[in-house]
Amino acid sequence: MLFVADRCVGCRTCQMVCSLTHDGACGPSLARVSVEAEGLRLRAEFNPECDECAACAGHCPYGAIEES
Fold it and tell me: Which domain holds residue 17?
């Protein structure tokens, strides 16, 4: 997965969709992707459990996550 920081607004839709897709519950702590502030910018990290299903990319309203 490719994260485009300039497009991310920190809405965490990716985290909600990921947790719903894989765990059936809406919880950012369950997601395989995390969005964190790094100074004035945001960054995303995909944990080792991420299987690149692209649910997060398909639901990001700003196009901040793309399939690699």
Answer: 2-66
Residue 4: pLDDT band with limits 50, 70, 90: very high
Neighbours of 38 (CB within 10 A): 8
Instruction: Give the CATH number for residue 23.
Output: 3.30.70.20
Nearest in space to 14 (alpha carbons), one of 55, 43, 47 = 55
**Cβ neighbours, 10 Å, residue 2:** 11
Model pLDDT for residues 19-60, shown as the tens digit of each residue: 999 999 999 999 999 999 999 999 999 999 999 999 999 999
- Phi–psi pair at 16, nearest 5 degrees: -65, -45
What is the domain count for the chain? 1
- Evaluate whether 33 touches 23 at the Cβ level (below 8 Å): no
Whether the Cβ atoms of residue 32 and residue 49 lie closer than 8 Å to each other: yes
